[in-house]
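Good morning C.,

I know you're traveling, so I'll keep this short. The sequence:
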Amino acid sequence: MLNKSAENTIAKYFLIGAPFVALFLLTSNVSDPVNVTKLFVLGGLAGAVGLVALSQGFKELWAKSKVIVIASTLLIIFSLLSIFASKGPFVQNLYGLYGRNTGFFTYFFLVLVALAAATLRSQRNFESILYGLFAAGGVNVIYCGWVLLFGDFVGWTNPYGNILGTFGNPDFISAFLGIYIVASVAWALGANRSLRARVITSLFSIIAFYEVVKSHAIQGRVITLGGLAVVLFFVIRSRSKGNLAQAVYLIFVSVLGITAVLGALQIGPLTQYVYKTSVSLRGEYWAAAFRTGKNHPLNGVGMDVFGDWYRRMRDAQAMILPGPNTVTNVAHNVVLDFFASGGWPLLFSYLALIALGAVAIFKIAGRNRKYDPIFVALTAGWICYQVQSIISINQIGLALWGWMFTGALIAYEIATRTSDASSSVDSVGKKSRSNGTVISSGLIAGIGLVLGLILAVPPLSSDMNWTSALRSQNLATIEAALVPTYLHPQNSLRYAQIVQSLEQSKLYDKAHEYALIGVQFNPDYFEAWKSLYYSTNATAEEKSRALENLKRLDPLNTDVTK
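The tokens, ready to paste straight into the viewer:
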């Protein structure tokens, strides 16, 4: 099995690196302060833990967790097949859309994180994951509290008017705080927790829930209350001998949950409390994403390319609500995003990973009724993430915890098997045997860290370079930033923006030049053809071709077709 040094190295990176992903922001030198920065840090974390796990723990993974290795490998393979079959820009498939960054490399890094978490065996190291969550949650609770009391000291644009935390969006911070509250409460209910730990946890959890309410995001409240219901189930189960109490509780919670879901659909007494117009909007986004995957069943349309297909795949109802000019570049449902991106093969490989996490939960719960705070915290946090993932976006700072919990639950199921107890490192630090490696795990992790950062840095480097070029207000500098290189990959939005800026500056020749480059870079990007159509120097033939493509990309929009 994985030697003690290697496992501790992975745990230390999780303890420090995971909260760093959730907290890291840059606001002064980038246009996207959240996504490119979190992708960069995620790359370093995944490279470090992934290389240690694969180089020193692959035999253990294969011996005890073959299915997660197979499912992860298939997900990577089907993602690559999707990329090569996609008509979208190759670099967009790799790094994702601007403002999302959920392309191939993001999921490659998340797979490495899950595999590394699946190698853990020590109770202390499982707690490291939870302590990392508590650290990130505690900082966000303090930050959001400061914002509510005194205003935001972070120099970024806030179009929402609500708390953003270190996630840049009220929905994301509310979901993260919900996961934090649930995991904290589950951990604090452990039998050996001190009064001081419980008081501090209770105080932070109460403040965090107040911040969830003040975020005005429904998903945070749903996740918090649903997660606490999961924790309470395990409490009741541990304190009752038969199955009656837990059966009654499950029936009650199920009825309440169904009523809440119906309320979200504008049916029943809870409608006024849980329904938001955004629910109806999500229904149209989901339908378009499902239609996209259904029409491209084998390879999908490419990683993070759904936005180029939404206009074509929406139905007539979407012309009414959300309306012809309201579009999306993400399904607002992670499962459907995978389906649209890679068709049935990619969808099933992702669902297989989720199923493995669920199976691990049932196995652990089935053999032990005693309240296990680590298990309950991981389980409740994992369920909260899964709920969030079917109603929202796969934001990097949130997704990290869901994938890490999946691997950790699989590992915890193995570590708590009776037959494996003697070979695990238990809570008092029993050592496992070394596997005889010559190179230290710390050095391997350092190499992986550097490799991961190199793979993840292009979007961040490109954004910093582009922001600096725009601030210079020098055309030559801006044009130099538009030359694609490894460290400066381009994106469709950037070409559309520069065309508009050049038109406003009456530099019509340059605007026309970059409008043509934009449609060549991504022929399925609606705004690229729109930029060409409105380009002052565009020829009649070019305008006609642009209009044809606008109709092709948005066939139901009468503003275009007429």
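Safe travels,
E.
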